[in-house]
Every structure is written in C-alpha cells, then in structure tokens.
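RETRY 2/3 - previous attempt timed out on the joint model. Re-submitting the same 936-residue input unchanged.
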Amino acid sequence: MSYMKVTSGFVQALAAIVGEKNVLTGDERKAYSRDESTGPVAVMPDVVVRPENTEAVSRIMKLANEHGIPVTPRGAGTGLSGGAIPIAGGIVLSLERMNKIIEVDRDNFCATVEPGVTLIQLYKAAGEQGLYYPTYPGETSATIGGNVATNAGGMRAVRYGVTRSFILGLQAVLPTGEVIETGGKFVKNTSGYDLTQLIIGSEGTLAIVTRVLIKLTLIPGKSEILFIPFPTLKDAIEAVPDILKAGVLPVGIEFMEKDIIQMVEKFTGVSIPMHDRNAFLMVMVEAETDEQVQATAEKIGDVCFGHGADDVFLPPNAQAKKELLEAREKFYPTISHFGMLELVDIVVPRSKIAEFVAQSKQIATDMGINLVAYGHAGDGNVHMHPIGERTPEVEAKVHKLLVELYKVGMAMGGAVSGEHGLGIAKRDYFLGVADPARVELMKRIKTAFDPRGILNPGKLFDRPGKAS
Amino acid sequence: MSYMKVTSGFVQALAAIVGEKNVLTGDERKAYSRDESTGPVAVMPDVVVRPENTEAVSRIMKLANEHGIPVTPRGAGTGLSGGAIPIAGGIVLSLERMNKIIEVDRDNFCATVEPGVTLIQLYKAAGEQGLYYPTYPGETSATIGGNVATNAGGMRAVRYGVTRSFILGLQAVLPTGEVIETGGKFVKNTSGYDLTQLIIGSEGTLAIVTRVLIKLTLIPGKSEILFIPFPTLKDAIEAVPDILKAGVLPVGIEFMEKDIIQMVEKFTGVSIPMHDRNAFLMVMVEAETDEQVQATAEKIGDVCFGHGADDVFLPPNAQAKKELLEAREKFYPTISHFGMLELVDIVVPRSKIAEFVAQSKQIATDMGINLVAYGHAGDGNVHMHPIGERTPEVEAKVHKLLVELYKVGMAMGGAVSGEHGLGIAKRDYFLGVADPARVELMKRIKTAFDPRGILNPGKLFDRPGKAS
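RETRY 2/3 succeeded.
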C-alpha cells in the first residue's frame, strides 16, 4: 500500500475542521512520535490533529480516506507495543480533548465516557456514585480508548476478566467516516455480529472509538493482600491451580522471584518483607465482609503451606498494603532502569506457567542472556524481560531468544500477547507463529472496515507502506 | 445471490466424504426442514449431510463452495428464530454426530467439546469433575454449537453473563473450507482480532464451529429461590435496580404476571404458590454457605418489602424448589399451547423494563391483541407473546404490533434480540430499525468470511436467494 503526502492544503482543511490551534505541524509533534515501548523507535507524524467531538473525527476520516493519508489514533501514548507510533507518517489523531465523562448511570451500573478519559478519571467518577471499574491495567494515566484498543488486562483478571469483559457498547468512526453505534446498556444481545467485541483489541486498525459504554459494579466491601514465600518458583506456581480448586476466587495471583524483588528494593529504596526468599505469590482478595476475606485468606494459606510455603505475610496496616502493591507496580520502571532490552507478554494455560518459565529461563541461560520473569500466575500471562546493555550483537541474540520463546509458548497452547497488544513490537513475531489462514482472514476483515488501508497501517499483521 | 442446484453427482461426492448412510435425500430430510420457532415455516433441504469430524466438514465446505451450493449448519434444531431452516435449499450440514466431550481440564477449569454436545451432556461431564457450566438457556437438549451460534442467554445472566462470557476459543471451518483455531485456555489475549467473539452470535453465517473451548467454574455451594408477590408489575420491576444496588448479585431475576402463572397451572396441573397475586419476581441466589445465602435472601426481602411486596416465599424443600423452577421453564410450551402467535425477545436497559412493558401492553390493548409478557428483569431481556387464533387478519395485526414494539424498544436504547438470535424470524424487523451503515459493515464482514455467500444464506440481514 502506498500513501499520499500531507500537503499544506490538506493541513488547512484539517484546521477548518478542528481550528488552527488543534493542528500541530511543528516541534510539538515530537510528543506524538512514540509510546512507552522499549527501544529507539520513533516516527514523526506529518501532522497532529486534535478533534473535540465525533463529528470532527468523522470529517477528518472522510478527508483522510479521500486523500489516501494514513491516520494513527492515539490516547495517552502509554502503550508498550508501539501501537500509537505513526510508522507510515501522515496524521496522528489524538483523542486527548475528547475526555468527558458523559454519564454515570447508577440504575444500570454503567458509565458512558469519551475515549480520552483516563483510568484515574473513570475510577474517581464511578467511585463518587458508589460504583467501581474493576479492571486495573496498572497505568492509571492510560485512556479508556487505549484500554479498549489493546483489550488491556492487568492484575485483577482472575476474578474480573479484562477490558473486553466490561465494555457494553461503543460509538466508533469507520475509516471511511461513517459513525456506528454498537451494543447498549445490557449484557444479553444477539442482534447481528458483535462489532463491540470485534473492535475491542483491534488496536485502532478497524475504527476510531469515540464513545465507550462501560459496565460497572458496586465497590467491594473489603480487600486483603497475601504475600507468600516459596522455596522455588515451581512450588509457587504449582500452588495456583490448587488455590482456585479450593473454591476461592481471588482478584489476582501474581508470581515473582528474588531477583526482581531485590531490584525493586534498590530502585525504590523501599524494603520488601521476606526479600531473601526465592519465590513469591502475591494474592489479592476481595469480599463483602471481613469474615469472608479472612475465611478466603485461610483457605489460600492452607493450600500454599501444602505446596511448601513457609509463611503467609499479611500487611499489618493500610500503609504496608499500599507499599506492597506499589512495589509490584514498580516492576516495569525498575526493569527499565536496569536495562530492559525487550518485553515478552506471552499468555499460556495457567497449568503450564511453571514449565514455560523454567524452559524459557533455560533457553536464555544457554544463550548467555539474563531473563527476569514475573507475571499473572492466575491468568497465565507471563512477563519476561531480557536485561543488559544494548549492543547490536545483544539485540540480535535477544531477537533469537524471543523467536524461541514464542515457539515454546505457542507449543504449550499459548498466545503471543496477553495484554499489551501486537502493535509493531510483536507484529513480526506474531506473523512468525500465526496460522496463515487466520492472518488472511484478519486481513480481509481489515479491508471490510478500511478499504484503502489508511487506519493505523503497519500494525498487527500489516507490514508498513511508505509515503509515495 | 443465485445458487446452483444439487445434482446426483454432487450427492455422490458428499457420500464419498461421509459415507452413504450419512447423506439423506429421502423423507428423513423432513426432520431437518425447520426448528422450534412459531409459525408454519419449513423448507426441505435438497440433501442432509452428517459429518463426523472437522476434516469432513472442511471437505464438504470446499465442495459446496466450489459448486456454489448453500449450506445451513444445524445443531439440535431447538432454535426459536429459524436460524437452522435451509431457506435457500441446498445442504443441511447436521453436527449431530460430532458429539464428543474431548476433555474436561480441571487444572485450567475448562472443557473442550464438539459442537453437537448437548447442554445436558456438558453439565453432566463437568459435574463429574466437580466443575460447572453456569449458563442455563433452559432447553438442555440444545447443542453447544447452537448456543455458540445464537450467543444463548437464559435465566442466569445477571450473575454469570451469557454464552459469550464462557467461550475461550473455537475451532471453525470457513465457508471456503479452511480450518482456523481461535483463542485458548486463557482469558487474557490481545493477539489480533478476536475471531472467537466475532463467530459467537453469528448464527452460523460466518463459519461452522467444529470444536468449542468452554470456561467452567466450581460448583456453587448453596442456592435458593425467592418467589415474591407484588401489587403491580411496575412495583415488581422497579424493585430490581434496588436489589442490585443493595450489594447482592443474584444469579437471575425473573418477572411474571398472574396471567402466565394461571396459564401454567392450567397447562401443567401443578399449583403455584400465591397464584392469585398480580405480579411476581423470582430471584435465584447462589453462594458458598447457607449463611451467605440467608444474608442475601434477607437483603433482597428488605428491598422488595420497601417496594410493596407483601410476602417472600421460599420453597420449603427441594421438591417445592424444583416445581417452582419447572413452572418457570414451562412458560414457553404453555404459551405455545394457548396459541402463541409470535415471540418477542427485545432487550432494553433494566431501568426501562417497567416502562417498556407498560407501553407495549398499552399498544397491544389499543390494537385489540392479548399480549403476555414475562422475562429476565435482571438483565433487561423481555419476552412478549401475542396469543390468540392465527388468521391472516390477526397475523397482519400482529406484524403491525411488532413493528411498533421494536420501535419503542429501540427508542429506549434496546436491541432486537436478547438471546434467540435474528435468524429469519427477526431479520426484517431488524432491518427495519438497524442503522444502514452498521448493516453494510456486517455485510462486508460476511463477505470477508464467505465470498460466495453460501453459508446459511437468508439470515440476519440477508434476504434469500433462489436456486438457479
């Protein structure tokens, strides 16, 4: 696919839609040239446009489609796979000004928001009505639009699922400019193809989401965190299926090892309990009453003791609880600080995690690479980072390592990305392991939405075009 | 679209794939000419074919696609919208022989089954491993494949969601014969477009599902049913948002009125408690312990008393509980018995149900039509049936009534079908209220899967072709 160049006439036409101050063509564009993924990838867009409403988005898309100009939609730019990087140039369409909470509906337990609303804004607005958005991908400055685009996951998926589980409907602008509405304030619906679910996780390649209808719940009464040390990672991870079989449904179950705990301590200066042990589970529990939380914690403790745990730490107060959660949330910046070379986000069946991590570490060791692993033991989502100094030789070795890890993960019935999305960072790895019939079908679906291929080109399965 | 005729050579080619005894061309075809929807619609297929495995399905589809012969996939034929009726003739592809439970995986809480497995088979196989499939669409002889096709709902959606919420992955054969696999044994996944969710609810128009990966839960410890009489239906339905705001999450909340209760008593001969009251909620509750069930029941009772309920009936024993549930399950055959003319399956936001039912009844009364209403108050899914003697005049009047009801429902933010699907029965009503841009997009998606339009033609949004 080849794209047309942005001309000064085209820029003027954009300005006529959104006003001159919302069309950026100077150095301010730099802030829109990349996201938070690793590595040095950044591409300057020809122009950044910041519409305020759906109608403006529709007019921009009609114009871009007519002229064959690529458009890369953008939320807060907190993505980790390069999904918001405008690798074919053209327009970055930033949704930052569409940041209004339109409604919190207490009777139907839902909220209607614009895509530029951040997670922290949503948590707050829901909370003011006694309601709750249970998905917690971690980065609260991320936008809902970005969360929808990547089907963001996080640490609470065992009990609550992922972004997909909480989106009831969308308003979206097609690449050709038509505005569609999908879903509604209900869970039951079987009235044609589920466009809501198709657009979720499509990483801004099928449509630009301009409004999101979100299911909310009541605020849970009580919560607790259990921090449980094990002699080995294998012991820790093998406890997980048995925790769930014991009839409790924690919010999340995270696994981690001594290496990352000690790195976090160095990076943050905060001391973490039992930091000399080898491996840990961090189990988050919610229930209505203290008694229920207590009963659940006891069941989990019993299972873990049966798997070799020698302690169950419960933070003694709110501050200690907060510190423990914050330590977990600091894993990503910590590893960045110590030289993150890549990030792996593979998901495997939870019964396979122990084996997957062990095999992956062995492969890395054999290649002389230091691989840090942690992740969401309750939902099978494993994060792994090769760390070290970035040189061309190391990068080549890391690339070879990743190719191996994806093969191993897929052979265990896994998928390439659990929660970050493919973007550009995982595109080629995905194409390396995905069934061609499935990829061809995805391409045909893409064309059904976007006949000229102008929306977020070069992502998922699409190798990039060049401006002609 | 025009289709080719089935020739004797084509029938022989089918027999070469599945064996002669699995190709039906005689009177046995009659059992494959309709489903359980109302009205006299039945279309004889030219040929019925019963493959035993995915490879055979793939070969049949390649053959049909090459020859331009329409194919209508079929499960148990228990659908209520005509989705399995072969209205363009050609092949009925029955999945009845693909009825094996391939695996129940206790470590990952899931099952892998063939599409012809019935709900009762699945409940039993899961139960033997201490696991549970919470979706309960009611008709336990329905197949999983059919449930996936229609995204079946049922009485337990308030707590558990619908079929869509429990399907982790699929194996499916495209209309062109390629076999694809989607999803896996995990909830988190963002590796390209979610084909699993797109195929669910597509009513056999996009692909033939040949294997289903189903999420299971543990068996809930305790359950209870509350049967609560109210002075008016309005009182009953208005209690529903407040029940949910009270911090309890029932499995389901059903509403019904005296008319249907008394019809069921006549039809079944079973006496229903408090049958002289005007309106009722039936609330189903599940929890781990008796104490939790009791606490939940008390909260629900308190809310209902506040909304004018004058009693809360708890069945005194297992037999009474069973009778009450069975009475609810008999609504459909009861109304059929008393002259069901049509079935409406509209879903509206739950805060709108009272208003929607009141307006609908008023419109029916004004037109001189007797309209029975009941349904799933907790999830907004309203079932309404005009009843009476079927004459051409009455049918025309009922058609006019339905057009009005769909308009009213859509104006309240509803959707045409909550759980039955559009099939052919609701196709034209759907096309009458759906946004054309959305319909055109669905048609393009259909073409991305099915370029020759051979798979289940004439359904959803597609007006039928004729054999040429």
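The radius of gyration of chain B is 23 Å. Closing ticket.
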